[in-house]
Specification:
Layout (H helix, E strand, L loop, with lengths): L4 H12 L2 E2 H10 L10 H13 L3 E3 L11 E4 L1 H16 L7 H8 L5 H29 L4 H33 L5 H4 L1 H4 L7 E5 L2 E9 L6 H23 L9 E6 L4 H4 L7 E8 L5 H14 L9 E5 L2 E9 L6 H14 L2 E3 L3 E5 L12 E10 L1
Antiparallel strand pairs: 1-3, 2-3, 4-9, 5-7, 5-8, 6-7, 6-11, 9-12, 10-12, 11-12
Length: 381
């Protein structure tokens, strides 16, 4: 017959001596037990009812003024169970699983400033809680050995958490001070074009990781598998690079699209499309580093397209591009204007695959607000 932490706490106080609910509340507060129990005043009576129904405590007599002044004492069964549970509790190791560990695991998905702000807030709260515990202890000195040990433990845990949070914050702040490579900033002209007019840009040789495929991206499992594999390898490469002192922002998803007949794009005949999905890499991420990231990811996850990820160097040269705002299927008028008006009027023709850069996360962005760079390599025709 097991006991919850709250039940064992209340039962132990009643083994010590008979008490009513208000007395239990007072002792829990005075001994600093509030810091390591979740026992509010109302929950004390809930626990008393549970213990009484199990025959572990009993009322000592009729209350003179209602239930709130009923005094309870431990029964013989309660004393025996409390002793057994106490012996077990003294020897049991309970590994801490604070929520902050989940936060740290998810922190790569946040801006650095948000992580620093969260850790700073946590550090201030911990220091305040530690000051409160120390003040509560000072107000109750001298303390019995057991109560002193409880305060010692609480202070030790808080000091350790303060030290860990401060060290993590220091390390993260130091890392954040090192400028990360971000392709959107390094090549701002290529990733923030006008949404009104076509612009001609010179695209230098750039590094990517890539997966090839074909079919409708809305329905093809191969497309979804390719995107998942690319992001997995990109973040694996990022974390490996970060461990060596260099870091980068994982770039947006990009895609090269091709068809035997370019009119298939304006007609939105997606089943006939061939594609190469891309994520940019810094120039200092070598082919060996990409292959190492693929191998590392494969040991952790069984993803269908991991074996299809490859490094790619792309040199597009002269390109015409524009920013499309809105649903992907609404690109047709812009592409028609590019293919049938802008290129012929400027003596240009196709010189490579249609290139799209997805600046928005389609999972979180309304279709009418999606931002997509439409790029077409060209040459004089």
């Amino acid at each position: 017959m097991s006991l919850t932490d709250g039940e064992l706490t209340v039962l132990g106080l009643l083994v010590e001596q008979p008490r009513h609910g208000y007395d239990l509340e007072r002792v829990i507060e005075e001994r600093g037990m509030r810091a390591w129990t979740a026992l509010g005043f109302s929950s004390i009576y809930y626990v008393l009812d549970k213990l009484a129904k199990r025959g572990l405590i009993e009322a000592t007599g009729a209350p003179p003024s209602g239930k709130s002044r009923v005094t309870f004492r431990a029964t013989e069964a309660g004393r025996e169970l409390c002793a057994d549970a106490t012996r077990e509790a003294l020897a049991t190791l309970t590994p801490p699983r604070p929520r902050v560990l989940i936060g740290m695991a998810n922190s790569p998905g946040l801006p650095d400033a948000d992580v620093v702000a969260g850790l700073t807030k946590r550090l201030a709260a911990l220091r305040g809680e530690l000051a409160d515990v120390r003040a509560a202890r000072a107000a109750r000195e001298p303390l019995p050995s057991a109560a002193s040990a409880i305060f010692d433990y609480g202070e030790a845990m808080l000091r350790a958490d303060v030290d860990w949070t401060q060290a993590t914050l220091n390390a993260f702040t130091k890392e954040s001070a090192v400028e990360k490579y971000d392709i959107k900033k390094a090549h701002k002209d290529l990733y923030s074009p006008s949404s009104r007019d076509f612009t001609v840009v010179e695209v230098p040789e750039l590094r990517y990781i890539a997966v090839d495929g074909r079919g409708d991206p809305n329905t093809s499992p191969a497309y979804a598998n390719a995107v998942e594999a690319l992001y997995t390898v990109a973040y694996t490469a990022k974390f490996a690079a970060k461990a060596t002192g260099r870091d980068f922002v994982v770039g947006p998803l990009e895609g090269l699209w091709r068809a035997d007949d370019p009119s298939m794009f304006t007609a939105r005949r997606k089943e006939s499309w061939q594609w190469t999905m891309l994520i940019s890499m810094p120039a200092w991420i070598t082919d060996d580093m990409v292959h190492s990231a693929i191998d590392t990811a494969a040991r952790k996850k069984d993803l269908p397209a991991l074996g299809d990820v490859r490094p790619l160097t792309l040199a597009e040269g002269t390109c015409v591009q524009i920013l499309h705002i809105g649903p992907y299927d609404d690109e047709t008028p812009t592409l028609d204007r590019l293919h049938n008006r802008f290129l012929p009027e400027n003596g240009l023709t196709f010189n490579g695959d249609h290139h799209e850069i997805y600046l928005s996360d389609a999972r979180r962005t309304p279709p009418e607000k999606l931002r997509t760079v439409l790029r077409q390599p060209v040459r004089r025709g």
